[in-house]
Design goal:
The protein contains 18 helices and nine strands. It starts with a helix and ends with a helix. The chain has a five-stranded antiparallel sheet. Helix content is 46%, strand content 7%. The protein is an alpha+beta fold. The structure holds calcium ion. The site of calcium ion has 7 residues, from loops.
């Protein structure tokens, strides 16, 4: 599980930043495709009842783990791109919850992932319009040599890199990214549209049996698989079709994030070398995120699944492989099917003054996690005066949660359970994880 460690590294963080940029394209697409809805509408009683049932089940199962077992403790130098927030107490920290707009919506948009990622650095530099061909070829020679040195079959390396061309457009996309910040509600309403919810429900019904099988094997509720799928690629509708070796080689050759993309290039070669997928299928976003779940190659190696047992891990075209890969990613990041994600809450007046003493300790490798408060039993939150979003009492179950305020102290508040951190491991951004969670609830709600 090499990528497990890697995912928490600064490389992993960069991957998320890369994905973040793609996200904005989903936002733009979402705006085009559907009208805005008010997601703040109250949840149905049935949904609330289900949540409490899940919470109760979790309690029966022994409560929540206090920390995600898979969280690497490595650097979160990570989202260095974003503003430092150390001065602020955890839950009040402003995560620069920006979604980034790509000025040129890509046909191959990697939509969702990272929609809400913290802002990546905006480079003023223009991408070069021409490459030094000789230098690029020399770079490729070095990659070939190193790949073979890593044990990848020479024939695989030759095939994969034979027709690789640098793509100026890839660098232009990488560098020309407008940055804007939107609050959580705006972001959520752009993603959780009526059309996206209805489509999710239709697909839930259409794939009910398959989703049920995946849910059983991996222990992840179908609604969360659907929500991630929906946000990443609008349920597979958005195709990313840039030849993967072109985009990865271009970005690995470029100086800006060469180490990260060189690593991903080797991971892509290993995908071929191990026979997980054929060369012709290896297409992705301009930034190398692949298939319906938008996995980077290193994540693919670690988490992609062959659900139908045909020998391929086809996250581009095989629905079972797609669902299983998303579910496996969550499962490998400590998901518990006995729980849901959390709930919206109301804080008592003056609560913000308590936040500094509730700050989370340590570094998780995901900045959004570090910005949450530490976990407290729901009974303790209740004692502190926290109520359900509808004003009612918090459920009396043996469950722990952390406080999240995606827009800071003047915005909405949520108590999130351990599963929420698993979603943050898919994409370390509260806008993203909360929206996945709420889309899941909306899909389930009918
Ligand atoms: Ca398969």
């Amino acid at each position: 599980m090499m990528a497990v460690e890697r995912f928490g590294s600064s490389d992993g963080q960069r991957r998320r930043q890369v994905l973040a940029r793609s996200a904005s394209r989903l936002l733009l697409a979402g705006l085009v495709f559907s009208g805005l809805i008010a997601c703040a509408e109250s949840r149905s009683d049935r949904l609330a009842a289900r949540k409490e049932a899940e919470a109760a089940a979790a309690a029966a199962a022994g409560g929540t783990p206090a920390g995600a077992a898979t969280q690497p403790a490595s650097s979160s130098a990570a989202n260095a791109a974003t503003k430092p927030v150390q001065a602020a107490p955890a839950a009040t920290a402003q995560p620069a919850p920006a979604a980034q707009a790509a000025p040129t919506p890509a046909p191959n948009a990697t939509p969702g992932n990272a929609a809400a990622q913290p802002a990546a650095p905006v480079q003023e530099a223009r991408a070069p319009t021409s490459f030094d061909r000789a230098a690029f070829q020399k770079f490729l020679d070095g990659v070939r040599e190193e790949a073979v040195g890593k044990g990848i079959k020479s024939a695989v390396v030759q095939q994969a890199l034979a027709n690789v061309e640098p793509v100026a457009r890839v660098l232009e996309r990488d560098r020309n990214q407008a940055e804007f910040k939107i609050d959580f509600a705006t972001y959520r309403d752009r993603v959780i549209t009526t059309a996206n919810v209805e489509r999710g429900r239709r697909l839930r019904d259409q794939h009910r049996e398959l989703l049920g099988q995946v849910a059983q094997r991996y222990g992840v509720q179908p609604r969360f698989i659907l929500a991630i799928w929906g946000i990443e690629t609008r349920y597979g509708a958005v195709k990313a079709d840039v030849p993967l070796f072109n985009s990865l080689a271009t970005l690995a050759y470029d100086q800006r994030r060469s180490a990260f993309f060189r690593n991903e290039l080797f991971a892509a070669l290993q995908m071929l070398d191990r026979g997980y997928i054929d060369y012709g299928s290896m297409k992705g976003s301009w930034a190398g995120a692949m298939g319906q779940p938008q996995f980077m190659p290193s994540s693919y190696l670690a988490y992609a699944e062959d659900f139908d047992g045909d020998g391929k891990r086809d996250i581009w075209g095989n629905q079972g492989d797609v669902f299983a890969s998303i579910a496996n990613y969550l499962a490998k990041h400590s998901w518990s099917s006995a729980q849901t994600w959390g709930r919206d809450v109301k804080l008592p007046a003056g609560f913000q003054t308590k936040l500094p003493e509730l700050a989370r300790e340590g570094r998780s490798g995901c900045r959004a996690i570090d910005q949450m408060t530490r976990d407290l039993p729901l009974s303790e939150w209740a004692r502190l005066g926290v109520r359900r979003g509808d004003g009612g009492e918090l459920p009396r179950v043996n469950l722990s949660g952390a406080l999240v305020q995606p827009d800071g102290p003047n915005g909405p508040s949520f108590l999130v359970y351990a599963n929420y951190r698993s979603v943050l491991r898919y994409n370390c951004a509260h806008h993203y994880a909360l929206t996945v969670s709420m889309l899941a609830d909306r899909i389930e709600g009918s």
